[in-house]
Design a protein that fits this description.
The structure is a single chain. The chain is of the alpha/beta class. Helix content is 43%, strand content 17%. The protein folds into three domains: 191 residues, Spore Coat Polysaccharide Biosynthesis Protein SpsA, Chain A (Alpha-Beta Complex), CATH 3.90.550.10; 65 residues, no CATH class; 46 residues, no CATH class. The protein is built from 13 helices and nine strands. Strands 1, 2, 3, 4, 5, 6, 7, 8 and 9 form a nine-stranded mixed beta sheet that branches. Strand 1, helix 1 and strand 2 form a beta-alpha-beta unit.
């Protein structure tokens, strides 16, 4: 037991009393022997705190009197976590395999430059993945992840910092991913690890989520990007968000996004820590291209802007996803 590294589960919950119980039961069922489970109950009034305390006495749960948002809740956990690796789940997401935690630890121990592992999500959002035939296969590097299924190397956070707390909710994951790549770590979508996401509609509001996502994306650009890219990327991203809003029928609400973004601009400048142009290129390229090879992915930062914006990548990069073995076959060859 002394040689087994501690793993921390990170879960934030808000007014979904029935969901955390299923998530926590799946955490406790993992076959990894050293687990720390930290939960933030973000001002629930439905008995969530009492129910978790009663049914899962081994869980460390903190109740907040005021709703401070999922980003603040996760930062609180990240700052207190003792685990070498932190596994983030939503209160309505859970592993489907009891050895998932073990496989994540083995992988991250084998690859010290792997900072983030994003898991495959199945459930009502992705009904096509509910059968084995419809699942995603293989792996590729990524520029974003979903907090409902992710593993984070805790030591990496000393270089990247935590999530931007004033985001409140949405877009904190791509923002962290950019800083992960800039710090010399990789972020990987590993589809062999599967999380079932219940995707409860309790407390979900899609127009509100879009507003926060678009607003925070603009904030992230001003905090992270080199100055010569800030204005063009802001215009491109806000225009893309406006097109999406128009498609959804929310376009008349877009001015509120711009006002909220401008209101937060001084705070963005105060927290500004720009990444390299090479990092921006890697992240933008990974939005268009799936690269599995751990060496080839760093070459994305050397591509020209013409190649990245046109999507005309060198053939050797395009083929890295097709030719890369899965982790299972890699381990078998060692």
């Amino acid at each position: 037991m002394d040689n087994v590294c501690l793993v921390t589960f990170m879960i934030a919950t808000h007014k979904r009393v029935a969901e955390p119980e299923k998530t926590l039961a799946a955490c406790v069922a993992q076959d990894w022997p050293a687990l720390e489970i930290l939960v933030i109950d973000d001002a629930s009034t439905d008995g969530t705190f009492e129910r978790v305390r009663t049914h899962f006495p081994q869980v460390n749960i903190v109740h907040r009197e005021e709703n401070q948002g999922s980003v603040s809740a996760r930062n609180n956990i990240l700052s207190r976590a003792k685990g070498k690796y932190i596994i983030g789940l939503d209160d309505d997401s859970r592993f489907i395999d009891i050895d998932a935690c073990r496989r994540v630890v083995e992988r991250m121990e084998a690859e010290p430059d792997l900072g983030i592992i994003s898991f495959q999500t199945i459930g009502p959002e992705y009904t096509e993945r509910m059968t084995a035939a419809g699942r995603l296969h293989g792996e590729w590097h990524c520029s974003w992840f979903a907090a409902c299924g992710v593993a984070i190397r805790r030591s990496m956070l000393e270089k990247t910092g935590l999530f931007p707390e004033f985001f409140f909710h949405a877009y904190e994951e791509p923002d962290l991913c950019m800083r992960v790549w800039n710090a010399g770590y990789r972020a990987l979508q590993w589809n062999e690890i599967v999380v079932y996401h219940e995707f409860s509609w309790l407390n979900r509001n899609e127009p509100r989520t879009h507003r926060r996502h678009a607003r925070n994306e603009g904030c992230s650009i001003w905090m992270c990007c080199p100055w010569h890219l800030v204005v063009p990327l802001t215009l491109v991203k806000l225009a893309a968000q406006a097109r999406y809003a128009a498609w959804q029928g929310w376009l008349l609400r877009e001015p509120r996004i711009w006002v909220e973004f401008l209101w937060r601009l001084p705070r963005c400048l105060f927290h500004r820590q720009p990444v390299s142009t090479k990092t921006v290129k890697i992240c933008l390229a990974l939005n268009r291209l799936k690269v599995a090879d751990r060496q080839a992915v760093w070459n994305l930062g050397d591509l020209s802007w013409r190649q990245i914006l046109s999507g005309k990548f060198p053939p050797e990069l395009v083929e890295t996803e097709l030719n890369a073995p899965t982790m299972t076959s890699k381990l078998a060859s060692v």
